[in-house]
């Protein structure tokens, strides 16, 4: 069994939904957990200490170790980290789960929403990771698990949310290259589960019912636990996890079309070749023989 005895984990947004499930599973396997939750609505409004407190109480009642933190990831990253150090003396795992989602059509009025989503979802992820970084290095087997989204394939009226999750996807892969040199592995999940966000989303009711009955948060958390464990062998990856299905979510590149004297007309004429999926190959896994990076584009 993959256990976390002696390990300390921070789970942001740990008071409800996926974060709650992650925190409970890690604690049940021996981790000491900082349950961070600002207690806002799914759209990022208001605050409430009870979600984090309730999860901590649940963990302690089951014989585990946990403390609550109520700071906002956008402004309180250092305080979140300090809570872990004060309570448990170290940090081994950061699970960046906190986020918001508010569907809005794109237009001039959408920029404020895009900025807010980037601030909470992406910059919050980066800030907590950065604050914890020295402790993750000191751990010798630091693990970061970020939260991207299957909506990266595109979702109407979700430009703000999807853009922030796309930033997390790219951040995960790029940071993993640097992190590998100091013993840290950085991965992400792209989860689907029935949560507050799903319940409030503007999607068909029959889809909500399907999510509620077949895609629970508990089905996602084992993927998080594996990525958080010191035996995790991959880095820079995003794993889709929904309803018991796990898949690699990756960038691909095809053979394309080459012409050193290209013209717009050449692009038009050879568009089918440029877009040909039959020659596509996924970008390699970081640390493997087939690892892919920007430098490979110049070979």
From TrEMBL:
Keyword Oxidoreductase: yes
Keyword set includes Oxidoreductase: yes
GO molecular function, one term: oxidoreductase activity
Keywords linked to the UniProt accession: Oxidoreductase
Record InterPro entries: NAD(P)-bd_dom_sf (IPR036291), Peroxisomal_Beta-Oxidation (IPR051687), Sc_DH/Rdtase_CS (IPR020904), SDR_fam (IPR002347)
A Pfam family hit: adh_short
Family membership: Belongs to the short-chain dehydrogenases/reductases (SDR) family.
Protein's recorded name: NAD(P)-dependent dehydrogenase (Short-subunit alcohol dehydrogenase family)
């Amino acid at each position: 069994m993959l256990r976390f005895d002696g390990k300390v984990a921070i789970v942001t947004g740990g008071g409800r939904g996926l974060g709650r499930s992650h925190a409970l599973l890690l604690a049940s396997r021996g981790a000491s957990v900082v349950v961070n939750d600002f207690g806002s609505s799914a759209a990022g409004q208001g605050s409430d200490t009870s979600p984090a407190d309730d999860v901590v109480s649940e963990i302690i009642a089951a014989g585990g170790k946990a403390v609550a933190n109520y700071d906002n990831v956008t402004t309180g990253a250092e305080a979140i980290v300090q809570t872990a150090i004060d309570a448990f003396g170290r940090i081994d795992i950061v699970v960046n789960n906190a986020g918001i989602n508010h569907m809005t059509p794109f237009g001039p009025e959408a920029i404020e929403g895009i900025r807010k989503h980037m601030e909470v979802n992406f910059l919050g992820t980066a800030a907590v990771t950065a604050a914890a970084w020295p402790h993750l290095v000191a751990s010798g087997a630091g693990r970061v698990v970020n939260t991207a989204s299957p909506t990266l394939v595109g979702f109407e009226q979700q430009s703000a949310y999807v853009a922030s999750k796309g930033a997390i996807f790219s951040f995960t892969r790029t940071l993993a290259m640097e992190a590998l040199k100091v013993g840290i592995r950085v991965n992400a999940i792209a989860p689907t589960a029935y949560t507050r966000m799903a319940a409030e989303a503007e999607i068909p009711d029959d889809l909500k019912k399907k999510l509620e009955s077949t895609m629970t948060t508990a089905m996602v958390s084992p993927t998080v636990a594996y990525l958080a464990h010191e035996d995790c062998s991959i880095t820079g990856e995003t794993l889709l996890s929904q309803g018991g299905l796990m898949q690699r979510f990756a960038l691909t590149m095809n053979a394309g079309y080459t012409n050193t004297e290209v013209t717009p007309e050449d692009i038009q004429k050879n568009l089918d070749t440029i877009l040909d999926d039959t020659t596509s190959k996924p970008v390699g896994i970081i640390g493997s023989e087939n690892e892919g990076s920007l430098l490979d584009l110049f070979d």
